[in-house]
Amino acid sequence: MPTPEIELLKSRSLPMLIEEEIQRVILSGQYAPGDRINEKELTLRFGTSRGPIREALRSLESSGLIEQIPNRGVFVRRLTPQQAAEIYDVRAFLFALAGRLLAMRASEAEIATLRGFVTAMDDAIAADDTDRYLRENFALHEFIVAHAANPVLASQYLSLIKQLQLYRARNLMLVDSMQVSNREHHEMVEAIAARDPDRAQAAHMAHVMSAKHRLMANAGLS
Amino acid sequence: MPTPEIELLKSRSLPMLIEEEIQRVILSGQYAPGDRINEKELTLRFGTSRGPIREALRSLESSGLIEQIPNRGVFVRRLTPQQAAEIYDVRAFLFALAGRLLAMRASEAEIATLRGFVTAMDDAIAADDTDRYLRENFALHEFIVAHAANPVLASQYLSLIKQLQLYRARNLMLVDSMQVSNREHHEMVEAIAARDPDRAQAAHMAHVMSAKHRLMANAGLS
DNA sequence: TCGAATAAATTGTCCTACAATCTTCAATTG
DNA sequence: CAATTGAAGATTGTAGGACAATTTATTCGA
Questions:
Q1: Interatomic CA distance for residues B32 and B166, integer angstroms
Q2: CB of B60 within 8 A of CB of B23?
Q3: Closest Cβ opposite residue B86 in set A15, A55, A150
Q4: Cα distance between residue A43 and residue A174, in whole Å
Q5: Which domains does chain A have, with CATH numbers?
């Protein structure tokens, strides 16, 4: 009886829609890390039977957002600082590859777009608009990865990003780190504009590692 | 009468076992890329109902071994040379990270093991024993990734390796390329032994890119 | 032989059922 | 009173039947 909103299927299968919705709920924080996810509750929420629900959960498991414990159910994954650090290392290398690839193939239009993001972030910093900064920041990163023309890379990178969202060290971006961060963005984009793969690769990797260190420092780690 | 199979069920769920078995069948080539996978056939093969089968297939889909087409079923994924090349690029960067991490933390015992692999491969080349070379080669790569102490890295790397196995360009290793390849292994291992992260990183990346180029050349591409 | 009509097979989903296991919570015991 | 036990109750894991929607195979007619 509930949720008639999921009538848009036909293109995507029901488990896929359910998967996306559960993912959305997890990433939005409605389900917190460690929370148990109840199948019956989901059948009520979506108005489907357990079959599609269980299929969706299987899919989510391989994406690293939930953990399945036999006979006990599925739980929203809980990331340790250690695990977050490991993800950052992998992310740095993937992002470095994205930067290198983009530097080798970026069009003038793409470069203009990239510069637009950086300028927008400069504006956001000047206006002390953290929300806007974060939005533009995410858009820049996503743009770079999406335009590197390597779907495998994009898929693995996005998977890591999602997992990192489980690690809410509630690190409120300080104006200070926004400035540092955007200086790094500037170097990344200029390296791409210069069509210098090595420089771009280094800049992209340095940027993620720098973000990692900022986060770890924030969390009181090394 | 505790059969081993029942014991396995304690630790791993039925869909997981099914998933592993299907994966084994795919990687062994029994199911070829493009083949359709029939649910009913699988229920007969495994003696289970469709539920666990479908769950296993969902899991396999996110691992990139199969593709799901709505209302048509699941098919063993078919990789284009282009896609294989993309996977190689990502693999190169992940492997570079593995090399770097291992160079920073390898124990004397680990280094000895690594040298053992390289020596074994030299022997295999001398004996023109391709099978043994391939076995040791796989073991070396796996060892490096497993001992880099980054589970996220290991998991993504292994996922790529599995996908690459779908791309059977039947590139029979030539003695020639075995020699080149093992020279690269030597440099990788010595860089690790020297605890030189930058050198190890470069050597590992170069090795994978070199393998990529050998494969692409074999396949008649650039 | 070709194409259309028909039959068969397959997927996607729901439902009910039930054993195995986990969780809860109250009664019992030390 | 705290800790333990143990019986309900809940939940997961799996089976199996059912059926609409869709795809694939087959047959038949032109």
A1: 8
A2: yes
A3: A150
A4: 42
A5: 4-76 (1.10.10.10), 81-218 (1.20.120.530)
**pLDDT tens for residues B187-209?**
999 999 999 999 999 999 999 99
Q: Could you say which DSSP state residue A125 is in?
A: H
- CB contact under 8 Å between B160 and A152, yes or no, is yes
Beta bridge partners of B67: B75
pLDDT in tens, B109-143: 999 999 999 999 999 999 999 999 999 999 999 99
- Cβ–Cβ gap A150/B89 under 8 Å: yes
Q: Residue A29: its pLDDT value, please? A: 87
Nearest Cα of chain A lies from the Cα of B120 at a distance, in angstroms, of 30
Which residues of A fall below an 8 Å CB-CB distance to B?
A: 11-13, 15, 51, 54-56, 58-59, 61-63, 68, 70, 83, 86-87, 89-90, 93-94, 96-97, 101, 150-153, 156, 160, 163
Q: How many whole angstroms separate alpha carbon B124 and alpha carbon B139? A: 14
Nucleotides of D under 7 A from a protein CB: 11-17, 21-24
Nearest C-alpha in B relative to A15: B58
Token digits of residue B186: 């030597």
